[in-house]
Sequence to fold (379 residues):
Amino acid sequence: MVKSVPEGGNWKDIPDTIPSKRLEQMRESFNRGEGSRSTYYGRLRRCDPAYTISTYFSRPGNGCHIHYEQDRVLSLREAARLQSFPDSFVFLGSQTAISTQIGNAVPPLLAYQIAESLGPAGVFVDLFSGAGGMGLGFKWAGWTPVIANDVHATYLSTYARNVHDNVLIGSIASAEVFEKLLNAAQCARSDGRPFWVLGGPPCQGFSTAGNQRSMEDPRNHLAWDYVRFLENARPDGFVFENVTGLLNMESGRVFAAIQKAFSSVMPSITSAILSAHQYAIPQRRKRVILVGARNRLDWRPPVPVTSLQPAPALFADLPRAVSVQDALDDLPRLSPGQDGCDLTYTSVPRTKYQAFMRGCLSAAEYLRSAGQQRLPSSG
Ligand SMILES: C[S@@+](CC[C@H](N)C(=O)[O-])C[C@H]1O[C@@H](n2cnc3c(N)ncnc32)[C@H](O)[C@@H]1O
Fold:
C-alpha cells in the first residue's frame, strides 16, 4: 500500500488489486459523497510543512505520515523533530506511550514564542504537562518551572528527565493532588517573579477527530478543574491550549462557556488560533490559545515569522514555511519500524532548522535567521 502512494498522494492511489476491507469501506463512503479523507494513507510532500503530527503517526492509514521518499511511516525521532523537540530530548516509555507524548505536545518552539509574548519571564506551574512540550518552550524563554502534574507516570518521567524534576503524578481531580499543587503555587507566588499557570487539558473529548464531542464527556470536566485551580492559586496569568475542534463543539457553546469560566477568575482574557507553520515549525498544526492576565489587558499573539507559499497578502513578505525536507534530510535512511536514534547523521546540518534540532543554535538564534533555511555549505 505504502509503495503505491506517491509524494503528496493518498489512499486514492492504492490500486484495488491490493485487498483491504478498510480501503473498500473508504471507497464506498467516498462514492456516497461522505468526505474524501484526503490525508489518509497520505505521503508527505518534501517541500511543504507536515500535516498535524497526531498521536497515531505510526499508522499509515490515519493521516499523512508516510515519509516523502522512503516506504515507511515517520519514525519517533522524525515526528519529534516535526514537533520541534530537539534531538537531545529523550522520550521514555513504550513506542505507543512515546507516540502519544509526541502527538499530544505543544511544539516547544511555539511555546517559546508564546512565552516571549507574555512579558518578563517568571515561574510556572505546568498542569496536564505531558512530556513537557509547553514546559520546555517556556524554559527556553528563561521561565522557571515550579511543578508539573500529569496523570501518567511515564509522561512525567520524560518531563523529569528533560525539563524539571519536581513532578506530581495523579489526577488533578483528586483532592490530595489538587492540594499539593496549591501548596506549590503558594511558594511560587512568594517568589517575586510573575507567576503563571500553563495547561492544555485533554482534548479528545473536544476534538473533531473523535466522535464524543459532548459536554458530557468526563475529560471535558478537567477544564473546570483548571478554572478551580486558577481561582485558588491566584496566579498573575494563565495559558490554556486546545484543539480547534473546541471552537465549534456544541455550536460554539462549549468555548463560550470556557471563556466565561476563565474570565470569571481573570479580568482580561484573549484568544487566538496559532498555526505552527507560521512560527518556523515544519508542521501545519492549529491550536486555540487562551491567555489571561491579572494586570495586563493588552496581550497580542506572537508575530508570525514564516508563511506558506504563495503567501496571502498580509504575510507576503515573510520567508517561506519550513518544509519536511528542511527538517529531516540529515537523518539516516531507515527500514520500517526502525527508530534510528542510535544512528549518526548523514551530513552536517543542511538547514538552520537542523542546526537548531542538533543544539547548535538556541531557539532565539534559530528564529533570528528563520528566513534562511538552507545552509550554504550543505551542497
Ligand atoms: C494535550 S496533553 C498536554 C501536552 C503538554 N502540554 C505538552 O505540551 O507536552 C494533555 C495531558 O493531560 C493529561 N491528563 C489527562 N487526565 C488528567 C487528569 N485527570 N489529571 C492530570 N492530567 C491529566 C494527559 O495524560 C496528557 O498528558
Q: What stands out?
A: The longest helix spans residues 175-189. The two ends are 33 Å apart (CA to CA). The CA atoms of residues 112 and 138 lie 5 Å apart.
